[in-house]
Specification:
Oligomer: single chain
Order of helices and strands: EHEHEHEEEHEH
CATH superfamily: Response regulator
Shape: globular
Number of helices: 5
Radius of gyration: 13 Å
Distance between the termini: 16 Å
CATH architecture: 3-Layer(aba) Sandwich
Helix content: 40-55%
Structural class: alpha/beta
Amino acid sequence: MPSILVIDDDQQVCGVLREAFEVAGYHVNIAYDGHKGIAQYRTSPSDLVILDILMPGKEGFETIRELRRDFPSIKIIAISGGGDHAHVNLLDRAKQVGANHTFTKPFKISDFVEFAASLLTESST
């Protein structure tokens, strides 16, 4: 069973993603900040990491950089509802630091799950 690690400080977002991906047949782990997410990944690597950009503690950019450095083949989808922050588009910046793909919150959950499934299928072929 493919596994997904969701790193987001918003418990509601984590709950919605967990439910949607579990219904779709995935095992889902949750971490509420970048420090816990990286520790979780080191202990139990996942097939895909979904992470928010704006989080307390270790935010998304730092988390992406560290995961990409230590696990170069990792699949990462960055999510954010923050839009432009200090005149920098957060999701464009996430791609620059190593995210494979990005989604703006709110997103249609069925489209998100479908996209993630295609990304995982693509990486397993």
